[in-house]
Amino acid sequence: xxxxxxxxxxxxxxxxxxxxxxxxxxxxxxxxxxxxxxxxxxxxxxxxxxxxxxxxxxxxxxxxxxxxxxxxxxxxxxxxxxxxxxxxxxxxxxxxxxxxxxxxxxxxxxxxxxxxxxxxxxxxxxxxxxxxxxxxxxxxxxxxxxxxxxxxxxxxxxxxxxxxxxxxxxxxxxxxxxxxxxxxxxxxxxxxxxxxxxxxxxxxxxxxxxxxxxxxxxxxxxxxxxxxxxxxxxxxxxxxxxxxxxxxxxxxxxxxxxxxxxxxxxxxxxxxxxxxxxxxxxxxxxxxxxxxxxxxxxxxxxxxxxxxxxxxxxxxxxxxxxxxxxxxxxxxxxxxxxxxxxxxxxxxxxxxxxxxxxxxxxxxxxxxxxxxxxxxxxxxxxxxxxxxxxxxxxxxxxxxxxxxxxxxxxxxxxxxxxxxxxxxxxxxxxxxxxxxxxxxxxxxxxxxxxxxxxxxxxxxxxxxxxxxxxxxxxxxxxxxxxxxxxxxxxxxxxxxxxxxxxxxxxxxxxxxxxxxxxxxxxxxxxxxxxxxxxxxxxxxxxxxxxxxxxxxxxxxxxxxxxxxxxxxxxxxxxxxxxxxxxxxx
Length: 585
Prior knowledge:
Elements: E1 14-16, E2 21-26, E3 60-62, E4 76-77, H1 81-85, H2 107-118, H3 131-134, H4 138-141, E5 145-146, E6 161-165, E7 176-181, E8 184-187, E9 195-196, E10 214-219, E11 228-234, E12 238-241, E13 251-253, E14 256-257, E15 269-276, E16 285-292, E17 296-305, E18 311-320, E19 327-334, E20 336-338, E21 353-354, E22 358-362, E23 368-372, E24 380-387, E25 391-395, H5 401-404, E26 416-422, E27 427-434, E28 445-451, E29 460-470, E30 481-490, E31 500-508, H6 512-515, E32 522-528, E33 532-541, E34 546-554, E35 561-570, E36 573-574, E37 578-584
Parallel strand pairs: 3-8, 7-15, 23-37
Antiparallel strand pairs: 1-2, 3-4, 5-9, 6-10, 7-8, 10-11, 11-12, 12-13, 13-19, 14-19, 15-16, 16-17, 17-18, 18-29, 19-28, 20-21, 22-23, 22-25, 24-27, 25-26, 26-29, 27-28, 30-31, 31-34, 32-35, 33-34, 35-36, 35-37
């Protein structure tokens, strides 16, 4: 049986930042933030220079030059301070991890780097930025834009293009970015000439000793003439993925370590990338990445394919400097401020504000579970015990613009992310963390897989999975879906009556439109781990082409919480996924 646990606690007020649960405005103690858009706090001690992951031969330097309509490629020159200084970093720039002569790329090189790095003491990758960059607001940082005409890759060979991110605000980890062109590694030196500083009033000449913060890949998703964002890697180990007709929404991570744990979260970072330049009209682009943190290093491969449902096929080889209490595989980050079920404390013209509205799980027993998301009053954690999960994801099911009324963030167009494990992942649990949040700038929802076996010092782990950006969650299974969850507190009717809670669930899709013709044979199976379920009703919902289920939950004991489950049957045939939700009395 699927099991859940929840943890409620009153904690000091903190704020969710961009890569860790950290500073103010969040009711979470001893945790790091999970918002990569807004901040990534620097540790107390800063490294004077970029740590060197390991020693490998030095790549050729790519000196970026203006691209033309005819598809001229960036000029390539051999590495030397003289010819790199004009547009690249000065001799005071952060040192690259490559030291000797040019080499041909081999994926095993990244694995060797990660393995060797794990054998060395951890060096803090964060770097103190000039005050003019570190104090930029999110809006000011957005003014620093890559010049689109300077994008990398030959348009005569590929529809993909590569753009880079300037350091600033919370993005204080220098990231080395390499191109793999015709099999040869070519480092991209830092160049302020690639950026337009907009209305910031900053001069690029003040920042020549920096390095890049990350990168973005573009692709014509909308039509052949468009230049849409396909993915970005920016901040810690965060990345985003978009498909056709989707707007920027939730994020994924490379790895989560001790998230929501008593000792605080450890935040891994991608320190170096190798981007293989596509040729001959290839429809997939490959990115390799080196991950590093205090206790874990890793070699990653991302094979990214754009489309209606853009997909990243991911391979990770992890090496452990030290044991880890809780490792989070395939972490997904979403935001949930309020939805149709409860709008506590929010005076907002919008009916709903969230990038995801539920966690969908296809467990190893073949059962489909739908867990609506909440913005809880206290930190809430739920675990779904499983063996060899088939898939899970944070989805945005509600696609009705009228429910959001937000023309800027377009929550109705934001993608859901679906994780498909490859191979057998064994025993463990899918963990959902919901963090109290007063603001939509906080990514307060995280879901990931936790293996039952804890990684030990000196150990290794290999894992493969895919992340798919989807707007159409109905394509994942053919059963009826729980589309809405509404909740009402009930007052006692007399002195002997107990206060209760009414739950109103809407189910639609699948074969319901057929079986609803014989609605008298439809029934709802409702269960609660604590409390008493009363007044179960099921009725046709002609507005949504499905059914509505209503029931009341009354606490008849001293229990503080209950786990609820509900699904629809026609006689003895299950027609719907299982709706499940924790409830605090």
